[in-house]
Amino acid sequence: MLKITKKGDKAWVTFSFLPESKGEVFLCGEWNGWQDEKMKVKKSGEYYLTKVLKCDESYEFGYKVDNRWSCDSQVESVESPFGSKNSLLKL
């Protein structure tokens, strides 16, 4: 689930993800060279992380749970060079 708040040329994007199993959850995306960013967890078990990104850009991203790749069902997905799919965020 994504929550997007735009102000000027920037957007505050809160990425939320509820995994099927417990474990560490990481957000990975083009904005940082696909480096793992550990997500915070709520009492409900939902993981979240807020990023400030440039508007009028598109970013590929995904969630990594126990080294398994997952897409965000709220946005369209695109083929990755590794034979899987990435989520596509259009701001």
From TrEMBL:
Domain AMP-activated protein kinase glycogen-binding: 24-90
Pfam family, one: AMPK1_CBM
InterPro entries cross-referenced by the UniProt entry: AMPK1_CBM, Ig-like_fold, Ig_E-set
Listed SUPFAM superfamilies: E set domains
Protein's name in the database: AMP-activated protein kinase glycogen-binding domain-containing protein
Species of origin: Sulfurimonas hongkongensis
